[in-house]
């Protein structure tokens, strides 16, 4: 099983050490922009060729996208080194064996768009009642001792869900006739972020190459990633 807490540092280290060209990775608030027009101005001032937008839930306000909603999820990590297999039921619960713990989940709560109701701090707090509910449902699914294993961690987070993820090339156009900046949007993966990451990353590379070919300074029609055209029409 791939765990994000280990997978992301691995990818970063691999990129830094194996890229044929110099790579600079900055984590934090090096670029805080509240609108796409601010992103365009920043990209122009810094001579950026292409912008890739992977801001997750932040894209709701950044792109004024009311189709993107937060789905609250909860997980429980327990110490069960004896478990050597995964357990899954779409309607009950699931358990996946990680590197140093077993992850038990099965909680999905869609919330309103941040454009309608911003996420409140208390909504990100862990819930003992929700933890007990997850463990009880695991006990109903499997009669083994997993639900009574020592709890190592409780986690609450928000997954950026979109019925059709946004994966497309668009253009940040200057209404005053200045240079237009290509932007590739890549967000809305929901709970499938790691599973879809490799495929959507390849699509982003394709869209970047198309943007560089078409980057003439004019506002050009956008382009969906291959395969999304049919979904977008439904």
UniProtKB/TrEMBL annotation:
It is found in: Peroxisome matrix. Pfam families: DAO. InterPro entries: D-amino_acid_oxidase_CS (IPR006181), DAO (IPR023209), FAD-dep_OxRdtase (IPR006076). GO terms for molecular function: D-amino-acid oxidase activity; FAD binding. Residues 44-206 form the FAD dependent oxidoreductase domain. One of its GO terms (cellular component) is peroxisomal matrix. GO terms for biological process: D-amino acid catabolic process. Its cofactor is FAD. Keywords: FAD, Flavoprotein, Oxidoreductase. The keyword Iron does not apply. Gene3D superfamilies: NAD(P)-binding Rossmann-like Domain. Its main location: other. Belongs to the DAMOX/DASOX family. PANTHER family: D-AMINO ACID OXIDASE, D-ASPARTATE OXIDASE. This is D-aspartate oxidase. It comes from Clonorchis sinensis.
